[in-house]
């Protein structure tokens, strides 16, 4: 990696100040950024680790009943501490990567990076969650703007993600055989006012909501309701591990399985 | 008295694991020579192009830079040699291109080294490498083998007549007879398939440390090698012009090789050369990313096979046509893999009277391809066992019955492809398999799977392989530019302990445990009294190293011969000590006794007498007790086996799950059953990796698409089942002193066809008439085949 300065502030305020330097870069769990640095594909002037900021690490219940996950909470923390209130979210977190990844990687790091095959974006979008930063609140529908693209500004820090807790939810991941990221991952969540279906891994545009499935499931929350639906392969990714048509097909299969397993 | 759990046949725990598992191993990257500098190679990021500028001036002025090398620095030096020359169908030698240490004039694959920076730190070397200005005039990349052979194809090597390395026919004299038999056959089954390109990916990446002693003029190379003596000979004699007595090659603990560490690589020659040039020790450690574009790859065959049968389903002829990818240069033993390690195995376990194998080896703008666990034999087995399975389906006969009907049953058996199987019992091995795999219970298991919405399939496979790669005279006739004997020195110390210095090399095989078991058995002493030294040309006799499952069959035999010499001499000493006739001396349980008397002397008394020869037959024999033997066997060994795999296919996603895997192998006599189990487990895991997961892919421009573990799928623990393995079917090798055959590659050879046959069977059970799916049988490919 190229040389860079390093800071590890213990408060958000200090972090904001540290990130004001030109080309400074926030460091969450480093599960993407550190390998990128090692390959010399990034050249930040300064890395600002968010790992010592205790105020963004917790998982708590909000006044409105939402599950509020600190931006610095590791996947292992979420797997453990969200299990009672939001088991589908906890299950998703418990299947990201391997134990080493889960004990380093953070939800804030994941959704700030917005890898098109990451699991968390499906949960955030599928839950209609709110991304809270040091500056503002961003609705999930406005947050994910494309491959590795988000609504975050330079230096903006994710402090919390607020998940409304659904009546039923489930995440089904079909793993890419090499990376074990999602070749296709589908998060289905049933709320009183309707069903949300978010798909990761499949689209050239990153995580997206499958509106036809949402409409069908909002009418009747059963696997049969989506059995006849077919997603178009247009705009789906195609690579070594699966064609666009295969990914589109898998979205249907994973959606049905998520509905069947939702609890 | 020896501990009864330590000799031949005991599952002694691997003594080397104590240091490996406690972090006390001494791998090449653990070796740091005082004052060492670091190398970074600047590698081509294009597949094919003309180097129009390599300007190192800025890089030379960068902090910490000691010197920057380019191809021009190696113009007076030899290129990397190829160790095997194949003669083509027309009696002509293969086309053999130059292989410079650093690129000269052209780059020919992504990863081809263009320049190298030696600097005080690895990061400084890398910084400077980025400052080297390189201009490359792009040339069309040659990637597809058949396109590479067209008349208008761009040439990878301008000075060769084409991209064809050789067009090999075997046995050329049988060609017309085979054509005739196929034309006249009652049934011909044809299959076109690929054996995909693989990356070996040993856990330890390659490392080289070059050191030069200007006081003595001696070079030392520490390197991750399976055969340090071979590297010393090839690099010293062909590349750098250093005689063996001035060149020491050390391959200490090596973390896996799978063939990829047999070959002599440019980085080894560079570090040896540069250490003298800059008068500093020079170290290079490969990153994992570099390994993907600089370690020799494996397999990469495209094949059409035809199997002819008569009206009674007897195999009458086999004809194959294979395109074998050599990559951009000839790696050390590359030409031998698709020919002598592949064509000679095309008879398999069957008495097919006529066989013709055609192989066209092709140069492309890809990383060189060479031997990888099994080397040629997996490719032969895969096509043969796939086509037999397809024939059984076409003919509506039981695949096991069809195989049994055509098994070779009388030994020795001379195949029509030039080798003679000394021994085997293929029906007996199949009997073991049928019972172990509970094949009679398969239909019930299939019904149970179907009840859960899954398609269950059963795949069978039989394999034969040629191990114990040797004999020297034969391989010499076939084009090898090396001998393939093995060596050992057995040094007995004064107090009775023994050091065996073997020319073979352990990089995971367990020599340090199994070799002492043999000595312990021969003498009747504790295995703990025996140490094995290997991996250093300075203290081992010249040997050829470890590959082709040859360590115990060839290296172990050399050790037995040396130990026999030691025992014979010790008996002479014992006879003198007991004033008896040498002919009456018996050795048992570490005691020499005189037959028919109660006189005896202990092993330690005799060894002490050898080195303190106060009472000693000095007029008959010299003091000391140390002997060396070189063993060159009369034939290959022929392990064989029968494997059964059961899979479940998820018809909705195409995902394959292996539910059961049973392997019945005949390895002849076995020294350490636990280590053999481990070798078979690892081999099957690697074969499952090939069958379901691994795939090295290039795009049309010669860019490698699977250049990291993000896209190159290695098998993981949860991809494989618990295996059932059995080695009780044993027909000992008839021509080596231990009756052993070798077990290192069997699993990787025997498992891919079993897995693919099982998947095809599963799909047919679901009504999908799929003839073949190329490996890796990924979910996407299975789904596509089901929905074609």
From TrEMBL, chain A:
<keyword id="KW-0560">Oxidoreductase</keyword>
<dbReference type="InterPro" id="IPR036318">
    <property type="entry name" value="FAD-bd_PCMH-like_sf"/>
</dbReference>
<dbReference type="InterPro" id="IPR016166">
    <property type="entry name" value="FAD-bd_PCMH"/>
</dbReference>
<dbReference type="InterPro" id="IPR051312">
    <property type="entry name" value="Diverse_Substr_Oxidored"/>
</dbReference>
<dbReference type="InterPro" id="IPR016169">
    <property type="entry name" value="FAD-bd_PCMH_sub2"/>
</dbReference>
<keyword id="KW-0274">FAD</keyword>
<keyword id="KW-0285">Flavoprotein</keyword>
<dbReference type="Pfam" id="PF00941">
    <property type="entry name" value="FAD_binding_5"/>
</dbReference>
<dbReference type="GO" id="GO:0071949">
    <property type="term" value="F:FAD binding"/>
</dbReference>
<dbReference type="InterPro" id="IPR036683">
    <property type="entry name" value="CO_DH_flav_C_dom_sf"/>
</dbReference>
<dbReference type="GO" id="GO:0016491">
    <property type="term" value="F:oxidoreductase activity"/>
</dbReference>
<dbReference type="InterPro" id="IPR005107">
    <property type="entry name" value="CO_DH_flav_C"/>
</dbReference>
<dbReference type="InterPro" id="IPR002346">
    <property type="entry name" value="Mopterin_DH_FAD-bd"/>
</dbReference>
<feature type="domain" description="FAD-binding PCMH-type">
    <location>
        <begin position="1"/>
        <end position="168"/>
    </location>
</feature>
<protein>
    <submittedName>
        <fullName>Xanthine dehydrogenase family protein subunit M</fullName>
    </submittedName>
</protein>
<dbReference type="InterPro" id="IPR016167">
    <property type="entry name" value="FAD-bd_PCMH_sub1"/>
</dbReference>
Automatic annotation (TrEMBL), chain B:
<dbReference type="InterPro" id="IPR008274">
    <property type="entry name" value="AldOxase/xan_DH_MoCoBD1"/>
</dbReference>
<dbReference type="GO" id="GO:0016491">
    <property type="term" value="F:oxidoreductase activity"/>
</dbReference>
<dbReference type="InterPro" id="IPR036856">
    <property type="entry name" value="Ald_Oxase/Xan_DH_a/b_sf"/>
</dbReference>
<dbReference type="Pfam" id="PF02738">
    <property type="entry name" value="MoCoBD_1"/>
</dbReference>
<dbReference type="Pfam" id="PF01315">
    <property type="entry name" value="Ald_Xan_dh_C"/>
</dbReference>
<dbReference type="InterPro" id="IPR000674">
    <property type="entry name" value="Ald_Oxase/Xan_DH_a/b"/>
</dbReference>
<keyword id="KW-0560">Oxidoreductase</keyword>
<protein>
    <submittedName>
        <fullName>Xanthine dehydrogenase family protein molybdopterin-binding subunit</fullName>
    </submittedName>
</protein>
<dbReference type="InterPro" id="IPR046867">
    <property type="entry name" value="AldOxase/xan_DH_MoCoBD2"/>
</dbReference>
<dbReference type="GO" id="GO:0005506">
    <property type="term" value="F:iron ion binding"/>
</dbReference>
<dbReference type="Pfam" id="PF20256">
    <property type="entry name" value="MoCoBD_2"/>
</dbReference>
<feature type="domain" description="Aldehyde oxidase/xanthine dehydrogenase a/b hammerhead">
    <location>
        <begin position="22"/>
        <end position="140"/>
    </location>
</feature>
<dbReference type="InterPro" id="IPR016208">
    <property type="entry name" value="Ald_Oxase/xanthine_DH-like"/>
</dbReference>
<keyword id="KW-0500">Molybdenum</keyword>
<dbReference type="InterPro" id="IPR037165">
    <property type="entry name" value="AldOxase/xan_DH_Mopterin-bd_sf"/>
</dbReference>
């Amino acid at each position: 990696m190229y040389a860079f300065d390093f800071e590890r502030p213990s408060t958000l305020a200090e972090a904001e100040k540290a990130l004001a330097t030109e080309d400074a870069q926030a460091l969450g769990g480093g599960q993407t950024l550190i390998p990128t640095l090692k390959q010399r594909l990034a050249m930040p002037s300064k890395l600002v680790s968010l790992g010592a900021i205790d105020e963004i690490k917790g998982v708590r219940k909000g006044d409105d009943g939402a599950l509020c996950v600190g931006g610095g909470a590791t996947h292992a923390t979420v797997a453990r501490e969200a299990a009672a209130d939001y088991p589908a979210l906890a299950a998703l977190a418990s299947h990201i990567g391997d134990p080493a990844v889960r004990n380093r990687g953070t939800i804030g790091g994941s959704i700030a990076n917005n890898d098109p095959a990451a699991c968390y974006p499906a949960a955030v979008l599928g839950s209609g969650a709110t991304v809270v930063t040091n500056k503002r609140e961003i609705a999930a529908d406005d947050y994910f703007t494309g491959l590795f693209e988000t609504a975050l500004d330079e230096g903006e820090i994710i402090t919390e993600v607020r998940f409304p807790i659904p009546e039923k939810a489930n995440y089904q991941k079909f793993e890419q055989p090499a990376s074990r990221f999602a070749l296709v991952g589908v998060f289905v969540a049933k709320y009183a006012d309707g069903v949300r279906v978010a798909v990761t891994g499949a689209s050239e545009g990153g995580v997206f909501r499958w509106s036809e499935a949402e409409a069908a499931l909002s009418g009747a929350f059963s696997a049969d309701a989506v059995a006849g639906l077919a997603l178009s392969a247009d705009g789906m990714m195609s690579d070594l591990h699966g064609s666009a048509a295969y990914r589109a097909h898998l979205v249907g299969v994973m959606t049905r399985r998520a509905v069947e397993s939702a609890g | 008295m020896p501990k009864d759990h330590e000799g031949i046949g005991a599952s002694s725990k691997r003594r080397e694991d104590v240091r490996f598992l406690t972090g006390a191993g001494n791998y090449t990257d653990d070796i740091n020579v005082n004052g060492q500098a670091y190398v970074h190679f600047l590698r081509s990021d294009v597949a094919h192009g003309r180097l129009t500028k390599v300007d190192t001036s800025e890089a030379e002025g960068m902090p910490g830079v000691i010197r920057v090398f380019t191809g021009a620095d190696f113009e007076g030096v030899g290129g990397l040699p190829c160790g095997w020359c194949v003669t083509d169908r027309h009696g002509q030698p293969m086309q053999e291109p130059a292989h410079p240490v650093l690129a000269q004039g052209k780059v020919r694959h992504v990863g081809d080294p263009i320049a190298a920076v030696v600097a005080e730190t690895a990061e400084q070397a890398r910084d400077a490498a980025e400052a080297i200005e390189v201009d490359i005039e792009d040339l069309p990349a040659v990637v597809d083998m058949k396109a590479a052979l067209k008349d208008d194809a761009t040439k990878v090597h301008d000075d060769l007549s084409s991209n064809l390395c050789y067009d090999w026919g075997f046995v050329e004299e049988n060609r017309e007879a085979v054509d005739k038999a196929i034309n006249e056959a009652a049934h011909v089954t044809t299959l076109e398939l690929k054996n995909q390109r693989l990356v070996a990916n040993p856990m330890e990446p390659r490392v080289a440390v070059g050191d030069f002693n200007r006081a003595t003029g001696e070079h030392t190379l520490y390197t991750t090698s399976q055969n340090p003596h071979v590297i010393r000979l090839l690099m010293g004699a062909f590349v750098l012009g250093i005689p063996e007595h001035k060149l020491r090659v050390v391959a200490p603990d090596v973390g896996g090789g799978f063939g990829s560490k047999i070959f002599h690589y440019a980085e080894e020659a560079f570090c040896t050369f540069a250490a003298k040039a800059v008068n500093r020790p020079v170290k290079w450690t490969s990153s994992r990313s570099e390994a993907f574009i600089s370690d020799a790859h494996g397999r990469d065959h495209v094949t059409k096979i035809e199997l002819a049968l008569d009206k009674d389903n007897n195999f009458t002829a086999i004809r194959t046509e294979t395109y074998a990818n050599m990559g951009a240069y000839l790696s050390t033993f590359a030409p031998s893999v698709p020919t002598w390690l592949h064509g000679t195995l095309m008879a398999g376990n069957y008495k097919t009277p006529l066989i013709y194998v055609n192989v066209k080896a092709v140069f492309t703008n890809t990383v060189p391809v060479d031997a990888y666990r099994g080397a040629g034999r997996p490719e032969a087995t895969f096509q043969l066992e796939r086509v037999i399975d397809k024939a059984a389906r076409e003919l509506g006969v039981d695949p096991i019955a069809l195989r049994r009907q055509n098994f070779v049953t009388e030994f020795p058996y001379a195949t029509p492809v030039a080798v003679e199987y000394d021994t085997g019992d293929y029906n007996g091995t199949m009997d073991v398999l049928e019972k172990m795999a509970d094949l009679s219970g398969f239909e019930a298991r299939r019904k149970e799977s179907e009840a859960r919405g899954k398609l269950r399939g059963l795949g069978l496979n039989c394999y034969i392989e040629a191990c114990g790669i040797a004999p020297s005279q034969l391989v010499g006739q076939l084009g090898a530019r090396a001998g393939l004997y093995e060596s050992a020195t057995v040094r007995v110390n004064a107090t009775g302990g023994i050091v065996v210095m073997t020319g073979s090399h352990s990089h995971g095989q367990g020599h340090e445990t199994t070799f002492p078991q043999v000595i312990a058995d021969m003498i009747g002493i504790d295995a703990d009294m025996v140490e094995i030294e290997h991996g250093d040309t300075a203290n081992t006799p010249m040997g050829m190293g470890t590959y082709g499952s040859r360590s115990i069959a060839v290296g172990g035999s050399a050790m037995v011969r040396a130990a026999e010499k030691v025992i014979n001499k010790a008996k002479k000493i014992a006879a003198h000590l007991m004033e008896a006739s040498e002919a009456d001396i018996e050795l048992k349980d570490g005691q020499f006794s005189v037959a028919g008397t109660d006189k005896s002397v202990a092993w330690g008394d005799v060894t002490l007498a050898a080195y303190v020869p106060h009472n000693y037959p000095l007029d008959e024999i010299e003091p000391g007790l140390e002997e060396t033997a070189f063993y060159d066997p009369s034939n290959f060994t022929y392990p064989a086996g029968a494997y059964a795999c059961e899979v479940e296919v998820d018809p909705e996603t195409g995902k394959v799950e292996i539910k059961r895997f049973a392997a019945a192998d005949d390895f002849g006599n076995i020294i350490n059953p636990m280590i053999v189990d481990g070798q078979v487990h690892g081999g099957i895991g690697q074969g499952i990796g090939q069958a379901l997961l691994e795939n090295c892919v290039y795009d049309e421009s010669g860019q490698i698409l699977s250049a990291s573990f993000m896209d190159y799928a290695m098998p993981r623990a949860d991809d494989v089942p618990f295996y059932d393995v059995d080695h009780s079917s044993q027909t000992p090798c008839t021509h080596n002193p231990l009756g052993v055959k070798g077990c290192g590659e069997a699993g990787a050879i025997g498992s891919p066809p079993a897995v693919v046959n099982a998947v095809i069977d599963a799909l047919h059970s679901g009504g999908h008439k799929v003839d073949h799916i190329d490996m890796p049988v990924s979910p996407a490919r299975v789904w596509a085949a089901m929905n074609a």
